[in-house]
Amino acid sequence: MLEARLIIEGGKRIEGEIQVHGAKNSSLPVLAAAFLCDGTSVIHNCPALSDSYAATRILGSLGCKCKREGGSVIVDSSNADGCTVSDCLMREMRSSIVFLGAILGRTGRCRLSFPGGCELGPRPIDLHLSALKKLGVKIVEDHGVLDCTAGQRPSRCDITLSLPSVGATENIMLYSSLGVGETVIYNAAREPEISDLAGFLNSCGACVQGAGSSTIVINGVSELHGCEYSVMPDRIVAATYMGAAAATGGELILSGVNPADMYSCMSVFSEMGCGVYPYTDKIFINAKKPLKAVRTVRTMPYPGFPTDCQPIVMAALCRASGTSMIVENIFENRFMAVDELMRMGADIKAEGRVAVIEGVKSLSGAQVRAADLRAGAALVIAALGAEGTTSVSNIHFIDRGYESIETALKSVGADIKRV
Ligand code: EPZ
Questions:
Q1: Annotated catalytic residue, options 46, 64, 66, 118
Q2: What is the CATH architecture of 24-230?
């Protein structure tokens, strides 16, 4: 059967309001945390994405009972005692590595295969493993399978991360929440998704302090109960739709967002010449004037400009007048949209971690393919502002992070359909 594609007729102004769905990168660790609870958790605003379904399939394979009711996922972990994640489930989603800390925390054992590399380059987990070893976990690696056994946990453990890894911070929080002992993470990731995970864990009776700062203190507790929790809005999805308004000279209200999570994104769109106005749980953006190039965009750990927004901003800058430079400091291979954008007429020179974009008058529709989640979203953004028809294939990548991107964009004037 032919792979689904998105067909986009460019040139339509984006105008209207989009309700932004829950954050993929918060819902995944929160679903993993539900495994730690002895009882039932109700997780609201859980996005209906292929990655979220993969996470509930993993929970199911561990003995949890999961069901989705509208935007909520109910996880009953009362009799869950599994400790193995099958290779095919691990391959389905590399961020399944976040289950390692939760499974070990609850059962003391865990067997799972090394997460495959992904489109962004090798995705090492050395920081995850060295932290867990410091916490007394014995890890045997044989033929790509990690066989882990919890050992004597130190009463106090100080872990300094050489880089503020989001996944490593989450795995340490998940493993340290249950049990006896105090764990301190220095140079922890500060992403809002970390604070959201801490919010869920503390609602379940955990004792996690300092999330959102570089130093997080976790005091283990003897048991965690289920809770009812609402996942934060997805700041990357919000930024993606801001890109759609910017790329089409449109105007958009994004509702259900936390502007406080998005200052570095909002400032780049303002530098492009967009009007960006944050309110309590909304952002209003308009692109009345032709876009201007942005001298330098650098991706950084939070609160710096997020790497996940880099391809989106690149797509909007293709038609901005002047020369823009993007420096990708987080992943070593995150210019996957460049070749496809050039097929649409973009003028981009990418070398190592730097990409230089010369604004062009117009882009033209083409047959393009998504190489990863955010590069795929970037192609959609470019297509909206291009002349003519664009066909985007490999859209399963896009469905990992966006709930029906075509429905959201169609609702604000885009001519887009899934075939
Ligand atoms: C999370 O990935 C997100 N994924 C990514 O979003 C996001 O791009 C990334 O954080 C950075 O913000 C989820 O939350 C599911 P990291 P993660 O550990 O945890 C290196 C998307 O598009 N590193 O902070 O894997 C690593 O190679 C996805 O939604 C090590 O060297 O990110 C990378 O260069 C893409 N050793 C850098 O750190 C380690 O042990 C940042 O990785 C771990 C990471």
A1: 118
A2: Alpha-beta prism (3.65)
